Model the fold of this input.
Amino acid sequence: MDVLAKNLTKRYGDKTILNIDELELKQGVITGVIGPNGSGKSTLMKVIAGLDKEFEGMLQINGQTADQTAYRDMTLVFQKPYLINSDVYHNIAYPLKLRGQTKQQIAEKTEKVIELLQLKAILQQNARTLSGGEGQKVALARAIVFEPKLLLLDEPTANIDPQSMQLMEDAIQYIHQKCRTTIVLVTHNIRQLQRVCHEAVFMREGRTEQRGTVEAVLKSIKGNYLGELLEQELQI
Amino acid sequence: MDYIMQGFGEAFRLLLSFDKEIYGIILLTLYVTTMSTLIASCIAVPLGILAGIKNFRFKKTVIRLLYTLMSMPPVIAGLFVFLVLSRRGPLGQLELLFTPTAMILAQVLLVTPIIMGVTYNSTREKGPSVRQLAHTLGADRLQSLGLLLFELRADILGAVVSGYGRAISEVGAVMLVGGNIKGHTRVMTTSIAMLQSMGDYSQAIAIGVVLLGLSFVVNSILYQGQRVI
Done:
């Protein structure tokens, strides 16, 4: 799934939250989005996902204005995901049920993501009783189980242990390789950016300041931001 | 103190003696409260959800009015229904005054704002997250509503329990529109009020104990349901 944004502006009152001249997310590319807090990363995710439709400018999905069909092929995972008040299995199977898949299909598809993210032990547990990290894994499993064409991830691995982070990164790579899914990953973790992403976008004050390969973008970032990121990483 | 103990003894004696009048009162109480809660739920739950997820003109005023009606004194609801159903009222020709139907109507008027208010608050609290999730997982409008209802199930049951509690404990409205007619519109709360005024404390306590027991059983069932779902 290709995404093209041109002259995209989003305002809250007098404040401009997004001001993007041009941003293209190509089919099958994993793009990492980095930038300081308040730089508009999450707003960008919400705008692309269709959760925020009050913006100016152009946003096209596969060359057309996004509609319900396009939204059905994409998903967005938040850092603090909302989990359905039911067991973990129901949470993961829910998108497949929405798409009218058979029990057999549901069983096969869920089994794979359950194995990938090692969720078997907690399948019968109510999702609301899970720890933050477990909840994030369940949310990712729920997002990739229906094989979306565009996967938007807003800090999905923030505040989780290295082992779970590795599992989640493997799951992201798996869905990318299997379906050539276009993936946008918002992260504050440089090593994760280097491990997972093909391209990177650096955002500041609502603008996409740098864009290119991960290494090129990292080299071009001036000021303290890179230092801050490294500092955060060392605490992990 | 004796007459209080006597009252408790009388309660068991009445129940075990299968007194026709007492069981008639219990059944009518259950009928009126269950029907009024059911009807009120059918009206209030969709309206509460709608008010929670939609923005419309004068919404703030509507919500303020709703909160006011949630604490409406039962006698006012009773008086309103009485005036509407009385012979000179707009629905006087239906001859519903002093019937169980009138009592149900009065209780519907009392219970609907409670169920709607609780449902509205839950929807307002959970609605945005649920709808956001439904959208990101590709749900259409109907599926999104289905998920919202699923997520609100315990809250809706809680709202119904609150409404039922109001209905079963209410005396003013049913007294006004029902008239406490023996064998016809006499329910447990109106019986207690009447027996107390007659100085028959034993019987009043007896029916009070039964009412409390009944309320406990019904609420236990609903509470259990809330935990299970």
